[in-house]
Amino acid sequence: MALPLNLDSIEDLPRTPASDVKKLGWRGVMKAVSREGKVVVTNHNEPEAVILSVEEYGTIVRALHEAESRNASALDALRHRFDERLASLQAADAGTRLRLLMRGPAKLGGKVKAGESH
């Protein structure tokens, strides 16, 4: 099950100037964070930091772990396919099978075959 992960562009996130952090204090900034989930702190209108709620941070971390797990599974499947193909080439009769295959006529049915994906 994929976690919903809303990764907005930094330009689209709610902003608060650093002066507000000083003026409103930490509680004031955290009210904005609890309302929005994340806030960009700016200095002279340039992004300087992003403050995330604990929930937002947790969602991002879980989504990254899930993506990492999917990538690891895909890599394991690819590794398994490669190992199977390599094992067939390392079989004792691999050379004999290849020579027999190369000596025989190509059965392409009038089609050109460039590889498995073509």
UniProtKB/TrEMBL annotation:
**Stored Pfam families:** PhdYeFM_antitox
| Top-rank taxon | Bacteria
In terms of InterPro entries, this protein maps to: Antitoxin_Phd/YefM (IPR006442), YefM-like_sf (IPR036165)
What SUPFAM superfamilies does its record include?
YefM-like
Role summary: Antitoxin component of a type II toxin-antitoxin (TA) system.
Q: Which family does it belong to?
A: Belongs to the phD/YefM antitoxin family.
Descriptive protein name? Antitoxin
Species this protein is from: Montanilutibacter psychrotolerans
